[in-house]
Each structure stands twice: as C-alpha cells, then as structure tokens.
What does this fold into?
Amino acid sequence: MNLLLKTKLSLLCFLLIFLKMEAQSLVDIATLSSEFDYEIRYATPNNFIGETLYDCAKCLLQAEVAEALLAANQYFCEKGYKIKLYDCYRPLDVQKKMWAKVPRATYVANPYGKGSIHNKGAAVDITLVTLEGCYVEMGSDYDFFGREAHIDNYNFSETILANRKLLIDGMRKHGFNTVRTEWWHYSFRKNWSYPTLNDPLPCQ
Ligand SMILES: [Zn+2]
It folds into this structure.
C-alpha cells in the first residue's frame, strides 16, 4: 500500500470516528426528564409521508438544546402546561425522503443544500398539552402545509391566539427561534456550530 493511500485511509477512519462521536453527543431527552409528552409522528404512518420513518419514538437533541428545552418545559409547567414532542433529531436520509415527497423549501428544508436544523439535533417540533395531557388547540394540525399553520395568521379565536402566544413567548425566552410558516417548529438560536448528522435513531 503506498503512502498516499495509507494517509487517505487514515483520514477517512478519523473522519468516520469523528462523525460517530458527534452522533453520540446527542442526548435522549427521556434520560433527563420524564415530564414531556410524546407523539413522534415519524415513528408512525400518521405523518405527511404516510410511512413509518423512524424505528422508535425517541427525542434526541444536542445537550445544550435539551437543557434549554427542559427550562422551557418548567416555564410552561408553572403555567399549567407541558410540552408534547412531535419531532427532534431527524437523520439526513429521512430529510431526503421528505424532500422527495414535498420539494418545497417553505415547508421542507432541502437536504442537498444546508439541510434542516433537525438534522443537527438542534430543532424541535412541539405543541402544548395541559399537565393532565389534554389537547390544547393551536389552529391547525402538526405538519399542515398551509395558511392555518402560519404564525402571522391572526384569523383565529382569542383562545387559539393566546395558546400560540404562550408557546412562542415561552420558547423565545429559552433561546429558540420561530419560523413563520410552522407554529410547531423551534430552532435553537445557537445552532450553526453543530454538524449535520445521518445516524439512525438508537432504537436497540
Ligand atoms: Zn421542525
């Protein structure tokens, strides 16, 4: 084996180990708190693709993002609500499946461009439920692609607008940004330093 090939293989090994370490840096939020509700839609066929995309219903996040979400959940708890998780870390291959179905950057981040902040483990799709787990109306279903999901659409009852405001205010206070077209999506503000990941969810 010549020296150049050996060097290339060493670099490849290093890169693979590095990527593996990055993926392992994600934390399962269930190990930090039992106070979240879960409805991980991509672990079921009840999603806009109509197929089960995850092997298990887990919420993995960067540690810093998980800590911020825990603080947000405590804020909501003191007001009589808790966070229900729809989606957290999403492998890049799943992003590609979504893009194949809905190649519209307004609703699905392009996996061949920058990808989604979900691919970095630094974004969450969430709603609120009461502390007893009861439904809180937000004006549209999760992953509804249309005007009813936009946060600058104020054509709703006072109750819905108040529910949305509570969610937005609580998440912004804890370091998350909104996107205009999806009331459920929050990206952690300091997300740029995290790598895009493609490891499957650790289901075993
Ligand atoms: Zn999202």
